[in-house]
Write a structure and sequence with these properties.
0% of the residues lie in helices and 40% in strands. Strands 4-1-9-8-7 form a 5-stranded mixed sheet, with no helix packed on it. Strands 3-2-5-6 form a 4-stranded antiparallel sheet, with no helix packed on it. The protein starts with 17 loop residues before the first strand and ends in a 16-residue tail after the last strand. It has no helices and 15 strands. It has 207 residues and is mainly beta.
Length: 207
């Protein structure tokens, strides 16, 4: 017979220490940097790299988890510097001053890799072909949702949302509820946290 000898086989896997995951349904521009503290200048910023992450994309970074990150999302200003080695919320501001909070999860895998995930808990998709404006109820009256222009949203692209309760109105001249171009009244507030349910939203014209 033929004798075989099973030799020990060792396999090595080389991986980057940090992975950034974009789980937002939109494009995100990321800028990574380090701050070197200097007694004469307090600190000096070193730009490491920038990248564009499409929805669902990941990027591996050959840097330590103490890097700083800025994010830029369409219709919003660039965020402040954010440390990526701990979970937190990243506030981003639109041109009207409204603030939206992006969730950032950060955890260490069994292999010691830091995985950072950007996401929001809720998305709004407009399938009506009407220009919808979204509002957040508050004690001082409704406020327009961050990132939504005054002319409303017609596109079926998902809209970032960090609110649990919103109201809706139709704006502009595309208005199936009235013969005039005036905006409609706000709908009654409705809850976005009831997952798996359906319903109807009543919107009245202003005549």
């Amino acid at each position: 017979g033929v004798q075989t000898c099973a030799l020990p086989i060792c396999s090595y896997r080389v991986q980057c220490p940090v992975t950034i995951q974009n789980r937002l349904q939109c494009q995100v521009h990321c800028q990574f940097m380090l701050k070197h503290y200097d007694p004469s200048e307090l600190y000096r910023v070193e730009d490491l790299r920038s990248c564009v992450l499409e929805a669902g994309d990941d990027v591996d970074l050959a840097y330590s988890p103490n890097v700083l990150m800025q994010i830029l999302v369409d219709r919003f200003e660039r965020s402040v510097d954010t440390v990526i080695d701990e979970p937190q919320q990243i506030p981003i501001r639109d041109s009207s001053g409204q603030t939206l909070k992006i969730e950032m999860d950060s955890h260490i895998t069994e292999e010691g890799r830091t995985v950072v995930t950007l996401y929001v808990s809720t998305w709004i998709v407009n399938y009506t072909a009407l220009p919808l404006q979204y509002w957040r109820p508050s004690v001082n009256g409704p406020h327009a949702m961050p990132g939504v222009p005054p002319e409303g949203i017609i596109s079926q692209k998902p809209i970032l949302c960090d609110a649990e309760i919103i109201q809706v109105s139709v704006v502009g001249e595309v208005n199936m509820f009235a013969l005039h171009p005036d905006d409609t009244a706000l709908s009654k507030p409705f809850n976005l946290t009831s997952v798996g349910t359906t319903g109807a939203v009543a919107i009245e014209d202003l005549t």
